[in-house]
C-alpha cells in the first residue's frame, strides 16, 4: 500500500521538484498540496489548499514541508498534532523548537525528520570522513564551488570539519618550520588541519577529504550537480518516518 | 605500561618492517624474535630464538606472526596456548583452522587477529563502499596497478565487489541497448555492475569506487604506495587484541 | 567595430544557444536569422529570412550554421560565394565536399571553419594527449558518461585514441602473462593500449587520459556538463575566421 | 651506433641513478666516470677519473653533469671546449653564465642542455597549462606534497603560475563580494588566480591545475613518486643534444 503524502510549499523550487518525485514513485501517493497564495484548485487531480486548517482530519501519513522559515515551525507542529509525520527541508529552526517538536513527536508516537541537507551522498561523505579521521589524523579538506559563491569555506566544509574534530585526536599538521611564501597558500586552519576553497565557473558543489598516512592515502569525494540530488534523500525520509516513533534532526539518523 | 611483543618471522620483509615499527612506538616493547634459521643470538639487545618451544613461559602479551603458511597455524596455536595474543599476517588458514583457533581463544580468554590485509585505508574503503551501495545501487569499480600485475581484476577489487553485493539491491546497470563497438570497453561484469582494471608503470596499488545517482556522485579512493602502510594496521592490531577475549578474522572487526 | 553575424538554423537547440551567445558579446552583432520554416518576421529587431537567396548582398561577415546535414553543404557554399566566412557546426560533410569548400575559400580569400566538436576543452585534451603520448607511450583512456548512452567507447574516446596512435610508438601494454579472471576487466584494446567506458546516472560526458612511467604519472581530464560549453568554441571560431583566408576543418586548427 | 657518455658526479644520488639508466639503455654507452674524491679506479670496467683534465681528448659525445653548483659551470665550459655536448642537472647557474655557455656552444657547433627540472611530465604539465590558460582564464592550482616540505607554494607551482601569467588575459577570479569566514580558505593569490598547498604524509610531489568555464572543466595533474622519474628526461636530453648545435636552458626546448 502506498504512503499518502501532503506537500506544503509546492510552488517553490524544492517543493515542485518534490511533487515530481512523489508522482514518479509508485510507492507514494500525492494526496494534497498546500500554498497560501495558490490560485488553482487542483493540480492533475490533486486538491490544492490555501489554509492548513482545512487539512485537519485529512487522510495522509506524511507532511513534506518546503515552505519558509517563518511558517515551517508552525507547520511542523500542526503536522504532528494532526497525525502527519513531518519531513521538513526548511531551515531556521532553533534548538528549543527542535527539542519541543521532538518531545511532541514522542508523545504522538510519530516519526519525523527535519533536515538541513537532503543530499545522501554529502551526508555519507561526512560520516565516512569522521570515521576515517579516527585512524588517519592527517587530512585536508578541499571544497570546490561555482565562482558566484560568496562565503569560503562552504557551510558543508565547516560541518564536515566539526564532525571530524569529534573523532580525530588533535594534531597540528604540516612541517613545524612550514612557511608561506605567498600568504594563504596553506589554506584555512581548523583544529590543526587545513581547508581549501576553490571557486570556478562550471563547477556546482563538490567536496573532497584527503587523508594521508605513511605509504597510503584515502580520498572521499562528493559531487553535487543538481537540486534533484536532494530528492533521493526526501524519498528516503518519507519511507523511513512512517516506521519511526520519534522525530530526528538530520538525515544521518535515518541512514 | 608498554605492551611486550614477540615477532615470529622477523627476517622476512614484513617481519623486519614490523620490528622497526614496534621499536619506533614507545607504547610497545620488543622482547623476543623468532626465526628457525637465524644465526645471531640477539638484535640490538633483543634475544633471538630458533625454536618456539624455548618461549614457553616467556613474559610477553602479543605474538606477531609474519612467517609462512606451513608454520603459521602451529605458531598461532602455540601462542594462544601460552598466553600470547596472536596478531597474524600470514595467509593460508583454512576455515576449520580459523574456527578452531577462535574457539581456543575464547577458552583461553585471549584476543587475537588473523588478517589477510593490514591496510586500514583499504579496509575502510571496502566498508564505506558497502554502506554507500545501500543508497546508491549504481556504481563502478576502477582498480589501478603497476603493469607487472598478472591478474585482473585485483583480489581487493573482487573482495570489495563481494562486500558490495551483500548490501546492494541487485540491478543490471547501463543502457538496455548498450553496445560495445570495441569489445571489453564496458569492463568486467559482477552482479550487474562493472569493474575496470588499469595497468600502468609508475602505479602501485589503487582503487576507486564511483557511485552515481541523479544529480550527484560519490567517489571513494584508496592509494597504496608502500608496504609500510600495513604497519599502522599491525600496530592497531597489537593494541586492540590485548583488550579483547576472542580472536577475530579480518582487521575490519577491530575498527 | 563589431563582427556582423548571420545565424542559419536559429530555431534548433544549438542555433538558439548561439543566438544568445552572439547577443551577449558586445564584439559581435546579430544581423540576420535564417530558417525555412520560421513564421516570425523578426526576433528582437533582427530580421528573419526563410530563403537564403534573400541574403545575397547582405551586409555581414560571418555565417554561423547549425542546420541539418542535407542543407549544410549548400549553405556553406552559398556563404563563401557571397562573402560570408562560414562557421559550421552541422556534421555529415564528405571529404570531397570539404576539399571543394576549402578550395573555394582560398579562391574567395575567406576564412571558414567546419567543426564536428566545438568544446575547446575536449580539443585541447586531445591535442595534449597526443603530445604527451610521444614521451609516455604507456597510457589508458577512461571515458565516463550518463547511463543512457548506447555506444561504448564514446566517439570522443575513439577520436582521442586515433590522434594518440599518430604520435605514440606502438607498444602492447600490460604484463605479458596478464590474465582476466573476469572477462573484459582490462577494457577494450586499441593499438596496444586500453579504453574503459564507465556509465553512471548523474554523469554527463567526461574523459580521462592517464599516462604512467617509472616514478611518475600524468593525468588529463575533461568534464563536459552542458551544451553551453560549445559556445566558447563558436565564439572563438567567429573571431578567428574573419582574420583568415582559408577554411579549416576542425577547431584545433584555430587554437 | 651507441652514444658515448661521461658522467660527472657519479657518486651522488642523481649521478648514480644516471649511471644505472645509461647502463640499462643499449643505445647508450658509459665510457667514463668523474669524481674528485673517488678512490676506485674503475666501476664494472668503466674507468674512473679524479681530474677532468685527464679527459681532454677522450672519445665521448655527451657529458652528463650532476655535480655541485661550485664546479658545474667550470665543468660545462670544459665539456664544450673539449667537444662533449653537456647535459647538466646541477642548478645555480647565473643568467650571464648561461648566455656565455650558449654562445660558446654555438661557436663549437655543439648541442647542450642545462635543466633545473628533468621530469618530462612536470614540464608537459606546465606547457599544457600555459596553453589552456589562453582559452580558459579561470583556473586554480592545487599542489600536494609530503608534510616535511617547508615552503608553500612549491617552486614548481610558482613556475607554473609564472608561465600561465604569460599567456592568460589578466582577470581577478572569484565573486566580487567573496568573503573568507576562515582566513586563508581561498588560498594564495597570484595574478588574480589562486594557489593551494596541501601537505600530507604519504604524498610525494603532485600538482593539479583545474580550469573552469561555463559548462565544462579541464584538469591537468602530474604525480611524481620517485627520483627515477627524472631519468627519462636525462635520457631524452642525451639523445637530443647530439643532434643539436646550440645549448638550451630548460628541457621544454627539446620537447
Give a structural overview.
4 copies of one chain form a homotetramer. Chain A is α/β, with parallel strands linked by helices and 255 residues long. Chain A folds into 2 domains: 139 residues, Rossmann fold, CATH 3.40.50; 105 residues, Dihydrodipicolinate Reductase, domain 2 (2-Layer Sandwich). In chain A, the strands form 2 sheets. Chain A has an 8-stranded mixed sheet with strand order 3-4-2-1-5-6-7-15, sandwiched between helices. In chain A, helix 2 packs parallel to helix 3 and helix 4 runs parallel beside helix 5. Chain A is elongated and about 70 Å long. Chain A starts with a strand and ends in a 6-residue tail after the last strand. The interface between A and D is large, with 48 and 48 residues. Chains A, B, C, D: It is found in: Cytoplasm. Chains A, B, C, D: Belongs to the DapB family. Chains A, B, C, D: Pathway: Amino-acid biosynthesis; L-lysine biosynthesis via DAP pathway; (S)-tetrahydrodipicolinate from L-aspartate: step 4/4.
Amino acid at each position: 500500500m502506498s504512503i499518502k503524502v501532503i506537500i506544503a510549499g509546492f510552488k517553490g523550487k524544492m517543493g515542485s521538484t518534490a511533487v515530481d518525485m512523489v508522482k514518479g514513485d509508485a510507492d507514494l501517493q500525492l494526496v494534497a498540496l498546500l500554498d497560501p497564495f495558490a490560485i488553482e484548485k487542483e493540480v492533475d487531480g490533486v486538491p490544492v489548499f490555501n489554509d492548513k486548517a482545512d487539512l485537519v482530519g485529512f487522510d495522509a501519513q506524511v507532511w513534506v514541508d518546503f515552505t519558509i522559515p517563518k511558517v515551517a515551525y508552525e507547520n511542523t507542529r500542526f503536522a504532528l498534532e494532526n497525525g502527519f509525520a513531518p519531513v521538513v527541508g526548511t531551515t531556521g529552526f532553533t534548538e528549543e523548537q527542535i527539542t519541543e517538536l521532538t518531545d511532541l513527536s514522542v508523545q504522538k508516537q510519530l516519526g519525523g525528520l527535519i533536515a538541513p541537507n537532503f543530499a545522501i551522498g554529502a551526508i555519507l561523505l561526512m560520516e565516512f570522513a569522521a570515521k576515517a579521521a579516527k585512524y588517519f589524523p592527517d587530512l585536508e579538506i578541499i571544497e570546490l564551488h561555482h565562482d558566484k559563491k560568496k562565503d569560503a569555506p562552504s557551510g558543508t566544509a565547516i560541518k564536515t570539519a566539526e564532525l571530524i574534530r569529534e573523532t580525530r585526536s588533535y594534531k597540528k599538521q604540516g612541517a613545524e618550520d612550514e612557511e608561506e611564501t605567498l600568504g594563504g597558500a596553506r589554506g584555512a586552519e581548523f583544529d590543526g588541519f587545513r581547508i581549501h576553497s576553490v571557486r570556478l565557473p562550471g563547477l556546482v558543489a563538490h567536496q573532497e577529504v584527503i587523508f594521508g598516512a605513511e605509504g597510503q592515502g584515502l580520498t572521499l569525494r562528493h559531487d553535487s550537480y543538481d537540486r534533484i540530488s536532494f530528492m533521493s534523500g526526501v524519498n528516503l525520509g518519507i519511507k523511513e518516518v512512517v516506521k519511526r516513533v520519534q522525530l530526528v534532526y538530520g538525515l544521518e539518523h535515518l541512514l
